[in-house]
Design goal:
A 6-stranded mixed β-sheet has the order 1-2-6-3-5-4, with helices on both faces. The protein has a 5-stranded mixed β-sheet with strand order 7-11-8-10-9, sandwiched between helices. A 5-stranded mixed β-sheet has the order 12-16-13-15-14, with helices on both faces. The protein has 4 domains: 183 residues, Metalloenzyme, LuxS/M16 peptidase-like (Cytochrome Bc1 Complex, Chain A, domain 1), CATH 3.30.830; 162 residues; 186 residues, Cytochrome Bc1 Complex, Chain A, domain 1 (2-Layer Sandwich); 175 residues, Metalloenzyme, LuxS/M16 peptidase-like (Cytochrome Bc1 Complex, Chain A, domain 1, 2-Layer Sandwich), CATH 3.30.830.10. A hairpin with a 6-residue loop joins strand 19 and strand 20. It is elongated and about 120 Å long. With 847 residues, the chain is of the alpha+beta class. Helices cover 38% and strands 18% of the residues.
Length: 847
């Protein structure tokens, strides 16, 4: 059944389409709206005017508030008075005026084609409203009919009275008797008077002038009763739980959150964001263990402020286990998100006038203008917000009784626990303010990194981060990129402020983009496919293949402890469901956010709060990393990777390091700096062919470099060589000899000084890059003191043993030498041993 128009302005009905005028917006129009008022003289109701041309007819509307009149009778007051006026107008031959009653008032609207029609309608309306009720008058038949119809639309439960008051919809109350003529007259005298009545026109200026003149020449109106508004729900009011069997599918639940605001503009302006199908509320609810669906969001303007009513449904299949906790989690989340959105909403003071001018139908424009003339701010309300929860639970099919008291108590207790959980921050935060920078930066990542990954899912974390970053960047002006490291999986978001955007709003926008995609929204299969394809393409490239082979040897069973971007085997074995499970595990574990703010500490705090609200939590949960396997010992030896014909040969020579040993990793970084660079030890060692060799002059390697990879789980000091196939073995031999000399103590003070200079230049480059500064802030590692030359020599002596090295050689296939015929065989026949591959001389080698 389609509900009648409520007497308060219905501005948003999420997912079901706009109703009663469409969604509100806070944007101001380029020119002032053509809306205002006309003087009607003292003792007459106000007349709001929407001037507009082009309509075939103009419109007149009347709005009346019944707030505080017989509140125990609910919508009956507004419905009965609307029926009284409708019946009286019909008796005068005016049958095309629409008169609708609701919970706290009634409204009339009608088309008028001329000034004379407007005068006639207004005279008739005034008489219908101000004439006392007489027993037996014909209009009472209309009242009886409408009251009977209201009884056939009963409120599902008295627990929903506050919801009906918020939305203004007309529902009957159980055992509500029809009013007597005397009771109806008391209501009429109280409601149809100054302070409770407003009129409006929508059309030409001549129509407005005619309406104003008609009111001015008519008699003075009596005063209505003072508007007595009921108290708001108290902040500590507990949720109301009722039996919704018959209203919902068996085993289902419905949450209705009402939010009272001191100004009606704020509630109406917040509704479109809260009701958006892809908005924060809908997205956060959909990401819960028991996904909840936003059924509707209704915003209304009242004489004492505004009200929002959010209706949220949970399906029976999602409440099969632990229903109280799951309902409570959704309810507490909705309460938190609503408070955030309402607090962040800025609405223009003339929003009601703007809404009236936007209406397509002149009747709707006049009706909005009349009602908003009555709408007002709650006295002394400030920016107050009053939230209340009503929860309906339908008994399951096999239940022997409806929702019981113990179940209601359990739901209320769980809501209390969940509310506390949602208010307690769960994300670890590290912030820093750099005033005057061009952008704000936010890095949100799991501190578990690639620890849970093994051979079969190597790269699943990289898939999560890559897909989330692409999803966050789609259609957004925030730049989001994946952050994939051994110690962290996440997204890095950054961007400048929009023109005129306050710092805190800027920070929230950046943080929302990062946190929503990484911590809440389901990953879009399109972005998963694109990310997986990109990672697979990268894993097929020579450097990645070498690094993957190195990971197999340095961290057996866990190659992403060395190369976090994954292996071809792990990525090719991946499915969307497996990545979704990995994303769920990441979101359930410990998360850390680093914020580099460009304004002040308040901006950084706003970003942290924005991130934290996207992270789902459960009361009493412990956010820990999944258990990971005990690291296996590295497997020294030589490993082969076959490259396509014509490719350059490469080799990695790695010295595995103990995991978690910061001193060893620092020393390894200094040794790498000694080896690296055009003046480094590698360049000198590889600069000439071996003595007495036949190789042509020139360096043995086309390029060489050294670095520490895989920290902190699979750390290794790695030398990379790129060479021709003919020189690769000699380059590897020279490098091994160099490392052996360092092991024997051939580290000089000038080598240490050169390393210090190289590390200082690298640190300076990082310090000039906000991306690197944000990552360093996230990691929070303090700079280590420079090791002494004795410490470097001691490290080299223990770590650079030749029998502990892992060597990965990649080269194209070598041409097979021509075969000589074997005596007794046909020419061209294969020897039994012709296909056997030679083995490396190093123990543990694999080709």
């Amino acid at each position: 059944m389609t509900p009648p128009r409520a007497p308060a302005l219905l501005v948003a009905l999420a997912l079901l389409g706009a109703c009663g005028g469409g969604a509100a917006t806070t944007a101001r129009s380029a020119t002032p709206p053509a809306a205002g008022t006309r003087a009607t003289g003292e003792g007459r109701p106000p007349l709001a005017v929407v001037e507009r041309d082009g309509d075939a007819s103009g419109a007149i509307a009347v709005a009346v508030t019944t707030e505080g009149i017989a509140p125990e009778r609910g919508a009956l007051v507004g419905v009965a008075l609307a029926a009284l006026v409708e019946g009286r107008l019909a008796a005068r031959g005016i049958a095309d005026a629409s008169v609708v009653g609701g919970w706290d008032g009634w409204r009339l609207r009608a088309l008028v084609a001329s000034a004379s029609e407007a005068r006639g309608l207004l005279d008739a309306v005034r008489a219908a409203m101000l004439t006392p009720v007489a027993a037996g008058e014909p209009a009472l038949a209309t009242v009886a009919r409408k009251v009977a119809a209201l009884s056939h639309r009963p409120l599902a439960d008295r627990a929903l009275v506050e919801v009906a008051r918020c939305t203004g919809e007309a529902f009957g109350l159980p055992d509500d008797a029809a009013p007597t003529a005397e009771e109806l007259e008391r209501w009429r005298r109280a409601a149809h008077g100054l302070g409770r009545v407003a009129l409006a026109t929508a059309g030409t200026a001549s129509l407005a002038d005619a309406a104003a003149a008609t009111l001015a020449r008519g008699p003075v109106w009596p005063k209505g009763s003072p508007v007595a508004t009921p108290p708001w729900p108290t902040a500590d009011a507990r949720a109301v739980v009722y039996d919704a069997s018959g209203e919902l599918p068996p085993g289902g639940a419905r949450i209705v959150l009402t939010a009272r605001t001191a100004s009606p503009e704020r509630a109406v302006a917040a509704a479109p964001v809260l009701g958006a199908p892809r908005g924060p509320l809908a997205s956060r609810l959909a990401a819960l263990d028991a996904p909840a669906r936003v059924r509707s969001v209704v915003a209304t303007a009242h004489v004492d402020g505004g009200c929002l009513a959010e209706t949220i449904d949970l399906a029976p299949r999602d409440l099969a286990t632990d229903p109280a906790r799951r309902i409570a989690t959704a309810a507490a989340l909705a309460r938190q998100e609503t408070a955030v959105q309402v607090a962040d909403t800025t609405a223009p003071a003339d929003l009601g006038r703007e809404l009236a001018t936007r209406a397509a139908d002149p009747r709707e424009a006049a009706e909005r203008a009349a009602w908003w003339t009555l709408a007002g701010r709650r006295a002394g309300g400030g920016d107050a917000l009053a939230l209340s929860l009503t929860v309906g639970v339908a008994a399951a099919k096999d239940a022997t009784a409806p929702t019981s008291g113990p179940q209601a108590d359990a739901i209320r207790a769980e809501i209390d626990r969940a509310t506390i959980a949602w208010h307690a921050p769960v994300v670890e935060a590290r912030t820093h303010v750099e005033r005057g920078q061009g952008e704000a930066w936010v890095l949100l990542a799991s501190t578990c990194g690639t620890a849970p990954e093994a051979d079969g899912d190597a790269g699943s974390g990289a898939e999560v981060a890559t897909a989330a970053a692409a999803q966050a960047s789609g259609g957004s002006d925030v730049r989001v990129e994946p952050f994939v490291a051994v110690d962290g999986i996440g997204v890095l978001a950054h961007g400048p402020a929009r023109p005129g955007e306050p710092p805190q709003a800027h920070a929230r926008r950046i943080a929302d983009a990062a946190a929503r995609a990484f911590a809440a929204d389901a990953l879009d299969p399109r972005y998963l496919d694109e990310g997986r394809a990109a990672l697979l393409a990268r894993s097929a490239e020579t450097p990645a293949r070498l690094l993957g082979a190195l990971g197999v040897a340095v961290a057996p069973g866990h190659p992403t402890w060395v190369d976090p971007l994954g292996t071809t085997f792990g990525l090719a074995s991946s499915t969307d469901d497996a990545v979704a499970l990995r994303a769920s595990a990441i979101r359930a574990g410990p998360l850390r956010v680093a914020v580099l703010a460009d304004a002040d500490a308040a901006e950084a705090d706003a970003a942290v709060r924005a991130v934290d609200r996207w992270i789902a939590r459960r009361p009493g949960e412990a956010r820990v990393c999944p258990p990971s396997a005990t690291p296996s010992a590295p497997r020294p030896g030589t490993y082969a990777v076959e490259l396509p014909a014509g490719a350059s040969s490469e080799a990695l020579i790695a010295a595995p390091l103990p995991s978690g040993d910061d001193a060893a990793q620092t020393a390894a970084a200094w040794i790498a700096a000694m080896l690296d660079g055009p003046e480094g030890l590698l360049a000198h060692a590889l600069g000439a062919p071996p003595a007495g060799g036949d190789a042509p002059g020139g360096p043995l390697a086309r390029s060489s470099s050294a670095a520490v990879v895989g920290a902190p789980r699979g750390p290794a000091l790695v030398v990379r060589l790129v060479s021709s196939d003919e020189s690769l073995d000699d380059a590897v031999a020279q490098t091994r000899a160099l490392l052996d000399r360092l092991r024997q103590g051939a580290i000089r003070e000038q080598d240490r000084a050169r390393a210090a200079g190289a590390l200082a230049r690298a640190a300076l480059a990082d310090s000039l890059d906000p991306r690197a500064r944000t990552i360093d802030l996230w990691r929070g590692r303090a700079s280590s003191p420079a090791p002494s030359i004795e410490a470097l020599r001691a490290f080299a002596a223990s770590a650079l043993r030749d029998d502990g090295l892992v060597i990965v050689a990649a080269r194209p296939p070598r041409p097979e030498p021509p075969r000589r015929p074997v005596q007794g065989r046909e020419p061209g026949a294969k020897s039994p041993n012709a296909s056997a591959k030679s083995r490396d001389r190093d123990q543990g080698s694999a080709r």
